[in-house]
Amino acid sequence: MMKKNIALLLVLFFVLDSNAQCAMCKAVVENGGLDMAEGINSGITYLMLFPYLLVAILGYVLFRYKKRLKN
């Protein structure tokens, strides 16, 4: 139970940090032009791709591993 409480507190702590970063990005984009906004959006998409890619690869590896165990 104690580990769950600590994990919850850590998650809440990091959520507050991410909100601060979003406000900073918004301020930079508002002061920049259209090219800067497109660049930041492309960067966000690029960074968002890798966690999904890693989860997909892990899922595929686990699927293959379980399939081999059945044979």
How is this structure best described in words?
- This protein is mainly alpha-helical and 71 residues long.
- It has one domain.
- It contains 2 helices and no strands.
- The chain has helices at residues 2-31, 34-70.
- The mean pLDDT is 83.
Strand content: under 5%
Biggest sheet character: none
Q: Tell me, what's the shape?
A: flat
**Distance, first to last CA:** 39 Å
Helix content: over 70%
- Supply the number of helical segments: 2
- Ranges where pLDDT stays below 50 over 5 or more residues in a row are none
Structural class assignment: mainly alpha
Describe the structure concisely for a colleague:
The chain is mainly alpha-helical and 71 residues long. Helix content is 94%, strand content 0%.
Topology:
Blueprint: H1 2-31, H2 34-70
Structure characteristics:
single chain, flat, 2 helices
